[in-house]
Amino acid sequence: MNNKLYGNLIFELSKPGRKGYSLPRNEYGNYNMPESMQRQHPAELPECDELTVVRHYTNLSANNFGVDNGFYPLGSCTMKYNPKINEEVSAMPQFTRLHPLQPAETTRGAKEVCQRLKKALCALTGLADFTLKPFAGAHGELTGLMVIRGYHESRGDMARTKVIVPDSAHGTNPASAAVCGLEIVEVKSTADGRVSLDDLKAIVEAEGNNIAAMMMTNPNTLGLFETDIPAIAKLIHDCGGLMYYDGANLNPMLGACRPGDMGFDVMHINLHKTFSTPHGGGGPGSGPVGVRSGLEPFLPFVSPYEAGNFGVVMKAYAYILSLGRQQIKMVGPLATLNANYIKECLKDVYLLPIDGLCKHEFVFDGLKDKSTGVTTMDVAKRLLDYGYHAPTIYFPLLFHESLMIEPTESESKDTIDGFISVMRQIAEEAKTQPDTVKSAPLKTPIGRVDDVLAAKHPIVNYKQMIHDNN
């Protein structure tokens, strides 16, 4: 752990004059580069031999945690395993060597993949058509809201500028609406964590002629199925608005029910979550947007180049083909089974604010025994010592000590039992040795950092670090 190559930056390992490369003989002659394109100063690159570079980045990669090397129960994000066949298919040179500007007649195979994926997504969601252009879930949300706004404006209904968003919604919902130039109206949740029909009726009565849409995630952020969807959809449709489905939690719905059948008009899907493409690290993502019949004209213009992140499209289509019509129906039920199993095994030591059947994820409100002083943050940090990634913490904001767990359908009972055992052990440690839990992690290369300082004063480059240290 204390190896110099392990902990130092590549710039700190640099020695003047060292090289890790050799270039082939120049066979093309010498050409003068325009002065406007030349550097004014030499590139500030580290100088290291090849072996040092290989060891440095290999050691750094061992610090990185992902689904391939451990259980990743991150709630609200569906961090499922990405089968390696998906990677092999997307890496086929017939697809990776495509260029966005090559003649359309030479991309017929890629366009066929896009059309087949759209057809599969329509079958899985109950919608009429999709666009594959959006590059991520939030991009899909914005696209979907622009579809909704375009629909209202096409009818001359310019007053519909308000979007109803539940208080338990993902933060991207109000953000996307605001970017689209729409106003947000928050609807409250009931004590059981679902949308309050009474509060929604009051909003519709007051704002009916101004409502463009209602955005909902189902199951919601607490992992609970919104049982009043038919009544909610009728309220919104009767006042002239449209229903928007945030597809972030689509995973438990696969094989169980379809958003289009529930009354939703527009939705986005996170291909990089529900359909297994690696999720995290800022990308790559893909957020296709689907619409019910009649709204197809408001989708983005379909150019010869249909997909945004085509590699993600390839992986998602490979995933769907690998499972097939019958096996994909098991995704939702198995994700739901795994989540409920963990919940029931831990609710005697962790506080479950809303009891009952959950779907793909659930939320604890910290430890049941609050007298120990051990917080959700402490539990999350202690999990790292046992080789598990922490669940989502302090979200949703409905509970003070939220601990949000989503196992997905990919994990075996053995893996889940191991996680349950460690969670119970941490709960016991909170009683018998709370200082150990409060000072965790103890076995990682870097201990507990000052999150507030890191957020307020981020060190984003090597020069800044040297300056601050001096």
Count of distinct strands: 10
Number of domains: 2
Please state the CA-atom Rg, rounded to the nearest Å: 25 Å
Low-confidence stretches are: none
Walk me through this protein's architecture.
By secondary structure, the chain is α/β, with parallel strands linked by helices. The chain has 2 domains: 84-328, Type I PLP-dependent aspartate aminotransferase-like (Major domain) (Aspartate Aminotransferase, domain 2, 3-Layer(aba) Sandwich), CATH 3.40.640; 331-454, Aspartate Aminotransferase, domain 1 (Alpha-Beta Complex), CATH 3.90.1150.10. The protein has 18 helices and 10 strands. It has helices at 4-7, 50-63, 84-90, 93-96, 108-125, 137-154, 172-179, 197-207, 229-238, 259-262, 271-274, 310-327, 331-346, 376-385, 413-432, 434-438, 451-456, 462-469, and strands at 129-131, 162-166, 183-187, 211-217, 242-247, 266-269, 289-291, 362-365, 392-393, 402-405. The two termini are 25 Å apart.
Short summary of the structure?
This protein is an alpha/beta fold.
Q: Could you name the key traits of this structure?
A:
470 residues, alpha/beta, Aspartate Aminotransferase, domain 2, Aspartate Aminotransferase, domain 1, 2 domains, seven-stranded mixed sheet, three-stranded antiparallel sheet, 10 strands, 39% helix, globular, PyrdxlP-dep_Trfase_major, pyridoxal phosphate, PyrdxlP-dep_Trfase
